[in-house]
Amino acid sequence: MRRRGLTAAATLLCGVLALTSCSGGDDEGDSPGAEQTEQSAADQAAEDADTSAAVISITPEDAAEGVGINDDVRVEVEDGTLDEVVLTATEAGAEVPGTIAADGASWQPDEQLDRATRYELTVRASDTEGRAAHQVAAFTTVSPENSFIGYFTPEDGSEVGIGMPVSLNFDQEITNRAEVQQAVSVTASSGQEVVGHWFDGTRLDFRPESYWDAGTTVNVSLDFDGLEGAPGITGVQDRDFSFTVGRAQVSTVDVAAKEMQIIRDGETLRTIPITAGSDETPTYNGQMVISEKYKETRMDGATVGFTDDDGEGEYDIPDVPHAMRLSTSGTFIHGNYWASDNTFGSANTSHGCIGLNDEQGADDPDQDGAWFYEESLLGDVVVVVNSPDETITPDNGLNGWNMSWDDWVAGSAV
């Protein structure tokens, strides 16, 4: 009994000694576990010493889709400054210009982005100790199917004639017309009231009651970004532009008299003999605005419905000189070198265009066609009278002046 008790006590004592041996060392040394802990702390301190305090934030988030193309992309940094920001359209490989703010704390693109495009953004910043921080992100901009923009006429900074409206052509059908129209601001330095008119769901024009006053500056603001134009269709445009109205020039074509009188600022500049549309293909009557100018252009009758029995164009002239468009349907005022000189002022022979005597090659400035081309601005008005045809419709070209002011105002959505 006693021997058995001693054995148990010895066993217990050995257990205690074993436990003590496993749980620590003597006073003169550290255990392997302590060495690892101190080493990890040292490594962490070294890592912290090399880590930049600069914190970069990118908007939008990485892998975002449906991103807007105006002000939706931005880079910012806290506790540091931006050193380099590179935004690239991945498919084209083109770098988008951008600007770092003077304080180095933010960056934005300098220009509107493209729709349905994947972009990559690479950012490098540094803190006050010069330690670098890096961040990258990629995103895809909104698709044309889910967005709308308005293509506008005239161009920013242009000088135009007194008949030039502000014309917006949308790339999507607009059903929320009132809100979209309210997002357009058109102001004239002349103080003239300007009203919008919807021709259909994709075209909105603005004009005053009468022609712009000469010398007027017109400022236009489009605030469509984020605006719902139709269910599931959001605007992505935020744009300001302006144009200046030049001198007041109106040219009147008298089809019966076969002549055109050009009046500028109340004075007659010149009276020119013309040839207009024949009795079979007469020229429209009405007020028409010059919307395009070409020193030379091709005119193919097949493109505007003038074909022979074989389906070929009744005419195909590759080098029509000094051509200026008056309608979407194909009415031009242009130089004519293929008719005899005595045609002008004596016979109407065209397919509806107004022809002026000219030379092939468009290089003789003394010809009537060349002179009128050089004296004309986009937006100048050409009025046709005494033709056997009907008056041109207001939406055929930039020709809303052929609508009464009451009817024009009635087409406004606000």
UniProtKB/TrEMBL annotation:
InterPro entries linked: Big_10, LD-transpeptidase, LD_TPept_cat_dom, Transpep_catalytic_dom
Domain of life: Bacteria
Biased composition (Low complexity): 34-44
Start and end residues of each stretch annotated as Disordered: 24-52
Gene3D superfamilies assigned: 2.60.40.3710, 2.60.40.3780, L,D-transpeptidase catalytic domain-like
Keyword annotations: Acyltransferase, Cell shape, Cell wall biogenesis/degradation, Peptidoglycan synthesis, Signal, Transferase
Associated pathway: Cell wall biogenesis; peptidoglycan biosynthesis
Residue span(s) of domain L,D-TPase catalytic: 249-385
Signal peptide: 1-25
Positions of the catalytic residues: 334 (proton donor/acceptor), 353 (nucleophile)
SUPFAM superfamilies in alphabetical order: L,D-transpeptidase catalytic domain-like
PANTHER family from the UniProt entry: L,D-TRANSPEPTIDASE, L,D-TRANSPEPTIDASE YCIB-RELATED
Protein name: Ig-like domain-containing protein
Organism phylogeny: Bacteria, Bacillati, Actinomycetota, Actinomycetes, Kitasatosporales
